[in-house]
Design goal:
Layout: H1 3-8, E1 19-24, H2 32-45, E2 49-53, H3 56-62, E3 67-69, H4 97-110, E4 114-119, H5 121-143, H6 149-154, E5 159-164, H7 180-201, E6 204-209, H8 216-225, E7 229-231, H9 241-254, E8 260-265, H10 278-289, E9 293-297, H11 309-328, E10 336-341, E11 344-349, H12 350-365, H13 369-375, H14 378-391, E12 403-409, H15 416-429, E13 433-437, H16 440-446, E14 449-451, E15 470-471, H17 479-488, E16 493-498, H18 500-511, E17 523-527, H19 543-564, E18 567-573, H20 580-589, E19 593-595, H21 603-616, E20 623-629, H22 638-648, E21 654-659, H23 671-694, E22 696-697, E23 700-701, E24 709-715, E25 718-723, E26 731-732, E27 737-738, H24 747-753
């Protein structure tokens, strides 16, 4: 598939004369509906006919009313629903050749030769087998007189594309499967609720989460809540773990902790392959330690509830990519699965992924656990290593005599505390003395600096806002005092956690190195802001939490609009000049338009949007949702847009407006923000430790090279350190945003899903990759 082919093809004509069927199979997962909705709408956008297959493969075999044409409106209001609206079933019939013949016959009769399957590895393996046998199934159908030679010729080849919907995240080759993030939301909601009751009674809680062959949910939730112990199938505990576990729980209590949390994957095993059950652990803790112990088995709660913003965006992006992959496929293209790596959409050969997934199970089965962990991919391995380091205090006997200060800058956001906690704990593990700076650069100038220890940050991962306190003051005016305090408290390295102010403040400190020798220490900026506008990183801590807050508010607003009919809501979001929140919330909530600063708009565009809504009110979907970034245009304010829509919509629809305000900065951090912050905090300390060794000369620290002051950011597929000075060229300082922003490329998807007739730039679409050696990932 060459890039030229992509760019010359008109995407609105790619599907003319083609038919696509979409089905969901296997266990349900939140976000499947977003994928179905995107597949249907993008399919229709390309000119193809789209069919729903109800009840998974069973519907394919039974045919008749189970395979129905899908319309644009038939997928409306699906986005916020959990599960799968078109139904899923475990299907025995499809496992037999006879069943697959019936399925092939049903598809041929309807002229469907493109199949989009959303399910786990079993469902996708079944799809691949179906495709491999297609020619022979058709030959048998012709000889049995079920279809004509002509029909067989028309449907001579079947294209298959898979999307992985599974809450376990057990599919190799993809960072995140559809549903995993939402399942983590359910688990963490429960952990947060249980934590409060456990603390009241000084209890030990054992939580059993799903994951028969994969410990991802257990591991990610243990990382997100700072659990005392986690049991996963990929990495069984060492011999004598019972003594170790009891020691650790006793230690935690001795340090003043009022609760213990142990997380167990349902498939957890010991080194000898025997299951480790929650009852077994409960008996051990009760008998040996006499602790009041309770067990909670989460079960199907994890599959339920509304999909998170991440899963809706993932499902929508995958749906678009799946349609493109189907329409670009040739008889020689291997069946592929579309997935996400970092924030990149990728296509991977289906059977390669299935093979690696099977290899993991085989490695676990024969006791090759280190290999199983490696096959799960880099992201899984990073989670495991970070968890192991932070789970329990094991400080070295020798102190490093290094003092590291941690501070928060700018507006508060969810996840800041998790980053501080990880940095403090990792610093102590490295033998450093850790200092907390209160109230940002103000505090650094006025000496609000104090030592912080291991127990001082316990329980911080799940707390919103900024416990250290944060201010927007920049250091420029206080350089004299700041340098005095760096010397007074003997600070050798600095971690600055915050938004655009943290970046600018870091730059000011670097510029001050010429005058103040005290500033010649290694520094790292960790991006944390709801606006996601820090140069050098695709994501900021706190943006995911804000996005979920906006999305769930929009869900409620849409529900109210659906009740009153013919109503359009105009919602103003935060973000400064950065349109990330408005765009992503628009995609996650199914908005009709999202106005942002980065994409200039004029009165003609506003007029087109109003006309679009007037047309929409003639359909069965009688409601509208418009998002507006707070600074998208100085003259087209939220009031102006509200007045314009109210006037132009008179007699057709009425308008309401909502300004979401500071609720977007509050709330408890989402699992993504907790884990992202934890990994960033830990990684920043490891980097600083190696930088300090480089900068140690003649008995003191001296760092004045550009690469000794960096932003730690997520770039495509990896966490990287980039010198603050190098990022200046890519920064619009007036509007406080990076000049290049990756998410602008996915704005057209939002417009297409809202039925705008625009051109989708398919030149950005992913070519086929290979699964091994490709798996970095941000989750």
């Amino acid at each position: 598939m060459s890039k030229d082919l992509h760019s010359t093809m008109d995407p609105t004509k790619m599907g003319i004369g083609r038919s696509i069927a979409v089905l969901t199979s296997g266990g349900d997962a939140q976000g499947m509906n977003a994928a179905v909705r995107a597949t249907v709408r993008v399919g229709i956008y390309t000119g193809a006919k789209v069919f729903f297959v109800h009840e998974g493969y069973q519907g394919l075999v039974d045919g008749g009313d189970h395979i129905r044409p899908a319309t644009w409106e038939s997928v409306s209001m699906m986005l916020q629903l959990g599960g799968t609206v078109i139904g899923s079933a475990r299907c025995k019939d499809f496992r037999s050749r006879e069943g697959r013949m019936k399925a092939a016959c049903n598809l041929v009769k309807l002229g469907i030769t493109n199949l989009c399957v959303i399910g786990g590895d079993g469902s996708l393996t079944g799809a691949n087998q179906f495709r491999t046998e297609w020619s022979s199934l058709l030959a048998d159908l012709v000889s049995a007189g079920k279809i004509t030679q002509e029909e067989a010729k028309k449907s001579s080849h079947l294209n298959i594309v898979g999307m992985v919907g599974s809450i376990d995240n057990d599919f190799c080759g993809t960072d995140m499967t559809i549903g995993t993030d939402s399942a983590l939301h359910r688990i963490i909601e429960v952990v947060d609720a249980i934590t409060t009751t456990a603390q009241s009674h000084q209890r030990t809680f054992i939580l059993e989460v799903m994951g028969r062959h994969c410990g991802y949910l257990a591991l990610a939730s243990a990382l997100a809540c700072g659990a005392d112990w986690v049991f996963i199938p990929e990495m069984p505990p060492d011999e004598g773990w019972e003594d170790h576990l009891c020691r650790r729980l006793t230690d935690q209590r001795a340090r003043g902790s009022r609760l213990n949390v142990i997380i167990v994957a349902e498939g957890a095993i010991a080194r000898d392959g025997q299951l480790i059950t929650s009852d077994q652990i409960k008996k051990l803790v009760t008998d040996r330690l006499g602790f009041d112990t309770r067990t909670t088995i989460l079960g199907h709660v994890q599959r339920g509830g509304t999909p998170s913003a991440f899963d809706r965006i993932l499902g929508s992006r995958m749906g678009v990519e799946a349609v493109m992959a189907l329409l670009e496929a040739t008889p020689d293209t291997p069946a592929c699965v579309v997935s996400l790596s970092g924030n990149q959409a990728v296509r991977l050969p289906l059977m390669e992924c299935v093979q690696v997934t099977k290899d993991v199970t085989a490695a676990m089965g024969s006791g090759r656990f280190d290999e199983a962990l490696k096959l799960r991919g880099k992201s899984f391995e990073n989670n495991w290593n970070t968890y192991k380091l932070l789970a329990h205090i094991n400080p070295p006997d020798v102190k490093s005599n290094i003092n590291v200060a941690v501070m928060n800058i700018g507006a508060p956001c969810a996840g800041m505390n998790a980053a501080v906690r990880a940095a403090v704990k990792m610093g102590i593990i490295q033998g450093h003395s850790m200092f907390a700076v209160h109230d940002g650069f103000d505090g650094l100038a006025h000496g609000q600096i104090e030592p912080i220890n291991w127990t001082g940050v316990s329980g911080w991962t799940g707390k919103g806002g900024s416990i250290l306190g944060t201010k927007r003051t920049l250091p420029g005016k206080h350089l004299e005092k700041i340098s005095e305090n760096i010397a007074k408290f003997n600070i050798h390295a600095l971690i600055i956690i915050g938004g655009f102010e943290a970046y600018v403040g870091g730059l000011e400190l670097v510029q001050a190195r010429e005058k103040y020798e005290e500033m010649c220490i290694p520094m790292v900026v960790i991006p944390a802001t709801v606006s996601n506008n820090v140069p050098g990183s695709d994501f900021s801590i706190g943006a995911d939490t804000a996005l979920n807050t906006i999305t769930s508010t929009c869900d409620r607003i849409k529900q109210s609009a659906a009740g009153t009919k013919r109503r359009v809501f105009i919602v103003e979001t935060m973000g400064g000049y950065c349109g990330y929140l408005a765009t992503m919330a628009g995609l996650a909530a199914g908005a009709d338009a999202a106005y942002i600063y980065e994409e200039k708009f004029n009165i003609k565009d506003l007029e087109a949007n109003v006309e679009h809504l007037v047309e929409k009110m003639k359909t069965t979907v009688k409601r509208g949702l418009i998002l507006r970034n707070e600074n998208c245009n100085a003259n087209y304010t939220t009031d102006f847009i509200f007045n314009l829509y109210s006037e132009e919509g008179k007699g057709i629809f009425d308008c309401r407006k909502n300004i979401l305000g500071h609720m977007q900065q509050g709330g408890t951090p989402t699992p993504f923000d907790r884990n992202f912050a934890t990994k960033m905090g830990a990684k920043s300390i490891i980097w600083l430790t190696s930088k300090l060794k480089e900068c140690y000369r003649h008995g003191r620290i001296f760092a004045n090279t550009p690469d000794s002051a960096c932003v730690l950011g997520m770039r495509k597929r990896a966490l990287t350190f980039q010198p603050l000075a190098d990022l200046k060229a890519d920064t619009d300082f007036e509007h406080r945003i990076p000049k290049t922003q990756w998410w602008l490329k996915i704005r057209p998807i939002m417009k297409i899903l809202a039925k705008y007739d625009i051109k989708l730039d398919t030149s950005e679409h992913a070519d086929m990759e290979h699964v091994l050696g490709k798996r970095g990932g941000h989750k």
